[in-house]
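Reopening this one. Same input as before:
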Amino acid sequence: MAHSPAPGSEAPPSSYQESPLRPPPPNRNIVSRGTSYLTTTLQPPQIAVTPVPAPTTPATVATTSPFDTMHIATSELTIIPETDLQPLEPYAETGALINRSDATHAMEQHALNPDLLWPRVRRWLRDPFSEFLGTFILVLFGDGAVAQVTLSADKNGGYQSIAWGYGIGLMLGVYTAGASGAHLNPCVTLTNVLFRDFPIKRFPIYLLAQLLGAMCAAAVVYGNYKSAIDVYEGGAGIRTVPGYSDHATAGIFATYPAPFTTRAGQFFSEFIGSTILMFMIYALKDDGNLGAGMLTPVALMFVMFGIASCFGWQTGFALNLARDLGPRLVTYAIGYGNQVWASSGYYFWIPMVAPFCGCLVGGLLYDFFLFTGQSPLNRPYFGLYRFVPGLRERFETSMPRVSDKEVV
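Same output, byte for byte:
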């Protein structure tokens, strides 16, 4: 449907055409919601065009929906079939660390070379490859920093070097794994399943890729420092665990608590660090808040450095099941023995469980107090209406809807 200017209107002045403000792409409309704008397509029964008195004033389209008034900045409207329309929720987050829609994901999977074998394999496995390599980079830099500090007896670095190593590893890992959302952490993935509509069917795939990435990184660090480990431990073939030796090296790869910590203190230390991490991930990626935009990986480097510097000493700030369990499995396989599990009263389960609890609480706190986008806390009955057929039809049909083809 084309819209023509009112009769007798004059061409806009040159200053208007030289304005730095660019109109949106053709065939799209802008839904104004406060300071945020979402692209959408109107349904035919909802459109009523008001004549424009002046060309410098955009036409106004009044809708029958109580949600908004639409402002048209282009001369055409695209009509989308009813079957292609999906529920629209305002202030939705997009980008790294946040799930993309299935439609966008499908468009990303479109190949220009569908007949070539490896591009086809890479296309279907790009997300797990991305998580594998991102977690690999994270653990490679982190464990590498611990190895250098430990094996040099603090002569080539100190605790701050370890904090920087993990911070830089996280930043580079996020840059590496942006195609998959850069979770790098099963706890982050599960939190996105519950709070950001990340598909639950992808959780096992992400978990396996992250775990394998951490294991491979630990193996590379071990191979690089094997000679230094032999010297530090007192001989080739001697491998010990913290709590059983003054020259233990198992702590290079997995976390072990300080001897004075209680079981409750160990759990709380990992819990609070994970809570801060997840809270800040959502804060940095919230475009409805200040956000960090393209600087999110750099900001996350400082988040990790801050957690390590302020809350990491007692337990080694695992904050991540894959980052701790993967290297622990490697140490068990290369000869450190059953003590990697039995040390500190079977501490190994705490960095597996506490980060999940902390990340879920961190996501809950941010969404409860600050987030206004797609979250169960911002839906009727905390999103549980979707599991009741009558309530699902009632609430989803009352929402404004947008075609998946228009979601960017």
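So the earlier flakiness isn't reproducible anymore. For the record, The two ends are 23 Å apart (CA to CA).
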